[in-house]
Amino acid sequence: MKDVFTLVGKDLKNSFRKKFFLLLAFLLLFQFWFVATSGSVEEVRKSGEMFYMAVVFSFNFFGSIVALALNYDGISAERESKFMDLILTSGISKRKVYLGKTCTGVLVSAAFAILYSTAIALIYLALSGDLLLSLQALRYIGPIMAFLMIFSALGLALSVAMRSSKASLITSILVGAFMMPRLFVSIVDGVNGIFGFGETVVERIYMLSPALILNALNGYSDTKTVLWGLLLFAIYVIGSMITGIRIFQRQDELNYGE
Amino acid sequence: MNEAIAFRTHGVSKRFGDFCALKDVSVTVPLGRIYGFIGKNGAGKTTFMRIVCGLMKPSGGTFETGKRIGFLPQNVRFRERMSGEDALRLFAKLRHGGLEESLRFAAELELDLKKPTDCMSPGQQRKLQLVIATVGFPDVLVLDEPTAGLDPSGVQQVRAIIRQLHQRGGTVFLSSHVLMELENLCDTVAVIDRGELLYQGACGAAYEVETDGASEQVVAHLNDLLGGALTVSGDTLLADVDRRQVPAVLQALYENGVQVFGVKKQGIESLYNSLVREGA
Questions:
Q1: Contacts of A136 (CB under 8 A, 6+ apart)
Q2: What is the ipTM of this complex?
Q3: Which residues in B lie closer than 8 A to residue A83 (C-beta atoms)?
Q4: Exposure winner among A7, A108, A109, A161, fewest CB in 10 A?
Q5: Which chain B residues contact residue A10 at CB under 8 A?
Q6: Could you tell me which CATH number the domain at B5-202 has?
């Protein structure tokens, strides 16, 4: 495990770079624009609760793409720069490398969720002056972290499977767009129109979109929905991790120079 | 005499789809040697090195070693945000030791370890990568074009480090396009072309005899006498014989009416040219 911690330390230093803060600022600005133009401060004040859209509206549109942009080149960048060769010939197994990247993904997701939720709380505090109400935004740290972890795991698996960062970026954008709730829901509705799955099944299929898992986990849904959300979250994260490790272990470290 | 082995491959092959990058390559690298690996671009050198370092699985054949192998790949780029010293500390942690010696090597190579790796010049980066490859004293060091991108003094410094590692009993397996460099450094070489091993042995063991042209019958006759040690390359005869046999070869040539204008030990360039030209 000591080797994994060493790798996590290295990866964390590289994670908190310009890209991380630009993406965070982008989502915050989009959310701020929504809060300022939709009258959601007034709505939150009236209802006395920080509802889903008041905090994570921006995630519905750009969350998936932003989250994948954070993670699309986790393995491929080190492969392309041959830094991976130096690590792998240091007696470090691919499993350890992947585990290190996954742990880094968890920590980066946590940091992103904490910074985002805190910034939203501060925005509401500045606009409403109500501290207790604003603090409710921090309740979203867990669901946002889960959302980001899903894409962190997916991004890492894509980064392994696609090999090159360019291919991984293009695939991530496509996957991210597909996972956007509005597009995903309309696709599911279209398919349901043809096959007629029934309302309950369709509701469950909707939840394959991680933004809807985020919604399910926000604590306002019924217990059954929260459990479904947790189950799908676990399937996404563990499934991506197992797939990613298996692909990684079966791949040769190809020589890009030839 | 049984010589200790650094690593050995037997019939190693590697296919990428229909393309065969390596065909039945068997190489034995004795411990404590500087072993050169020569071939054109795309000949299969890097693929072979990556198999030796465990970064690639061979499609066929076996590889055996009981030694720890350090690797310096081609074209490594530092994208990580870390100083040279951070990089050495990272690899010393991963390899459980060897930091002090690496810092000393880095000082010998005049590396500014405080500088971020991505701000170093390509030559400085290459030197740092070489030091990283040596962290933790691997028994065998596999170096893919170690002096590529270095200025003349950098090349000399790297050569000195390689010799130093060798003197300490380390085995170095290196590829280079600079044949003179291999001739200066290596005691044994292997030549590979289009994935096939054409030669492995002492670096320039044969003698080149410049003649006025020996007929095939004369060469065949001399080969009968000398046990098949002569090959023809234009007006030059290649005599793969011991130094003490050279006078006998010259005598035999003289007796068969072949004029000799000069004799010299075969250089690595001539060895490479004769092998690759024949193989082309």
A1: A49, A50, A121
A2: 0.83
A3: 76-80
A4: A161
A5: 80, 82, 90
A6: 3.40.50.300
